[in-house]
């Protein structure tokens, strides 16, 4: 008999970082006005009716859904990409599809090296990054290298992750930066995958998709983009994401997903179709986040922190030019819990991340305490 010890069949997964915030949460909870937990970016507003009605209307779902997604969903996704991001897919309904739905985007991010069939080598991730890029590499037994610009040496690199607007810092990659990665990826035959799950949340800058013609030309070879309905449609509980781009790569991913049974439930596919056809609910939610961002950003600055980047996305990336855990302690004393920047890589160790995903009442409470 074989016994497996350690986590995840012996893989060296990073610690699940949120557990280390327990002491700060306990301290913040003692504040007479209650805790304002801004450490996790989970939406709190109601899921819009357009999704709920479509989900309920598709409740009769006896057969297996297709990993490929319904024709209606692929058509709606292609329409959304064209309308909102200026991206034209090769052929969403073709034999090699250029878009497939995913069960939220986190599973796709974590499984991407596996789905692309990478067996050895290195995955490049941003210097300061959403932790799941590293998790996916580790699970596939691959090495990780942090870089914000194309490395001079490409040997052994099998995949590059970009994230714009970025989590945690809200940085938007310029057209020149995106083009540099496209040129590098094509020169070395390395797929470039852009996680664009905050694409509709540009504040000071309009985020550009990797698949936009100004970046990619009219050819998506070697390029993939990841999108999510969690934040833009307040539907993280639905688990609804998209993968689009190079039809050869999308097919490779789709074929493995069929074998694994990674199927987006039929009613969720119906809700996604309705959501992707409707801009009004996205714009309405965006305005909610804009108001919270303005209120919180003013208070964070008034309290003496500097906000870096944060030109797009759902977070404020702030610093007091000290170790992030010192800032976390100070904020916990005010009953506020941010995420320490060290969760996202060594280069984040002097920042904290405030999520805008809290009710207006909690954002107001945080702002009052920061400016008192
Ligand atoms: C950069 C980034 N990518 C992917 C995800 C996963 O989102 P979801 O699985 O809800 O689509 C998140 C979630 O916060 C994220 O910040």
Automatic annotation (TrEMBL):
It comes from the Bacteria. Its cofactor is pyridoxal 5'-phosphate. Keywords: Aminotransferase, Transferase. One of its GO terms (molecular function) is transaminase activity. It holds the Pfam family Aminotran_1_2. SUPFAM superfamilies: PLP-dependent transferases (SSF53383). Residues 35-370 form the Aminotransferase class I/classII large domain. This is Succinyldiaminopimelate aminotransferase apoenzyme.
């Amino acid at each position: 008999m074989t016994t497996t010890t350690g986590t995840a069949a012996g893989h060296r997964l990073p610690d699940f970082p949120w557990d280390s915030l327990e002491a700060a949460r306990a301290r913040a909870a003692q504040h007479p006005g209650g805790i304002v937990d801004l450490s996790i970016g989970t939406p709190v507003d109601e899921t819009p009716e357009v999704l709920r009605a479509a989900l309920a209307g598709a409740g009769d779902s006896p057969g297996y859904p297709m990993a490929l997604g319904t024709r209606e969903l692929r058509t709606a996704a292609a329409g959304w990409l064209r309308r909102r991001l200026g991206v034209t897919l090769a052929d969403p309904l073709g034999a090699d599809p250029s878009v497939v739905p995913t069960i939220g985007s986190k599973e796709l991010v974590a499984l991407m090296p596996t789905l692309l069939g990478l067996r050895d080598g290195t995955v490049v991730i941003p210097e300061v990054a959403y932790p799941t890029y590293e998790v996916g590499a580790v699970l596939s037994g691959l090495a990780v290298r942090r870089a914000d610009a194309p490395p001079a040496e490409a040997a052994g690199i099998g995949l590059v992750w970009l994230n714009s607007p970025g989590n945690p810092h809200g940085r938007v990659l310029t057209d020149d930066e995106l083009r540099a990665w496209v040129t590098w990826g094509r020169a070395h035959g390395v797929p470039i995958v852009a996680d664009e799950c905050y694409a509709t949340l540009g504040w000071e800058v309009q985020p550009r998709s990797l698949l936009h013609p100004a970046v990619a030309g009219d050819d998506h070879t070697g390029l993939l983009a990841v999108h999510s309905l969690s934040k833009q449609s307040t539907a993280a509980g639905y688990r609804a994401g998209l993968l689009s781009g190079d039809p050869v790569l999308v097919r490779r991913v789709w074929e493995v997903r069929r074998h694994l049974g990674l199927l987006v439930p039929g009613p969720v596919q119906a809700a996604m179709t309705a959501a992707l056809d409707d801009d009004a609910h996205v714009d309405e939610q965006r305005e909610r986040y804009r108001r919270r961002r303005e209120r919180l950003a003013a208070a964070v600055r008034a309290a003496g922190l500097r906000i870096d980047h944060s030109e797009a996305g759902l977070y404020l990336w702030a610093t007091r030019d000290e170790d992030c855990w010192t800032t976390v302690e100070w904020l916990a004393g005010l009953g506020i819990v941010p995420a320490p920047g060290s969760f996202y890589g060594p280069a984040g160790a002097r920042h904290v991340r405030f999520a805008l995903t809290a009710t207006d009442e909690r954002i107001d409470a945080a702002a009052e305490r920061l400016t008192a």
